[in-house]
Please model this.
Amino acid sequence: MLLPPVLTPPDLLDATLARDGFAVLGADDLPALLGHPVSALAHWLPLWDQLPPDRYLKDGGRYRRRRHGSYLIEGDRATLQPHRPHWQPVEYNALHGGIERHFEPLPPALVDDPMWARFLVMGAARASALNGARPWYVEAHLFRIDTADGIGRPTPEGAHRDGVDLVSVTLIAREGIKGGETRVFAAEGREGLRFTLTQPFATLWLDDERVIHESTPIQPAQPGANGHRDTLVLTYRAGGFQGPSAT
Model:
């Protein structure tokens, strides 16, 4: 039995995020922040069928596909930055930290979509409400985790923080799988919650300074079948992108 998340009304999202360190916005409430119906995003879904393999998995797995892009958001303007590698310090990613990982860029069909810029700016507004208005350095990750080899691991690094100010995890699709439970824990303390995102475009928001998070492995719902879990992960960071020379 899947445990659903407690959804936060959009008018309480920023206050809940500030109070609890995380909040979940349901897809039905997304239009209140985005200014458009969820159906306006439906044409994004096939883009997850075109993700190339992630060749950096140190556990030898072949279960993850992804693309990556970087933006600078100033007010309501989202500017695509020159393509750059993704990098995290080992303090935040013990498995894959400390190396530059070069992923294929975001698809033009997404980059050129005005709704994409609106989505990015919507997240920046949450980051500014939480930490004060400023430019935000954003990394966008399109993920597909599949069960072609039996088990797929959404977070092979385990429970973690990302070393940013705000993280959003949007479920895009969940097809033919079991597992994939989301777990959120206080970074200082033992408090935690678990739930499963099942509604496309439901979004988990995380104050990365205060909470750690993970998603449990997925398996095929039917023996011998294949399934997948697609997500869009956005990270918002003040002061610049993470990199080997970042401070």
Q: What stands out?
A: Residues 18-186+213-237 form a domain with the Jelly Rolls fold (CATH 2.60.120.620). The chain is about 15% helix and 30% strand. The chain has a mean pLDDT of 94. The CA atoms of residues 7 and 53 lie 33 Å apart.
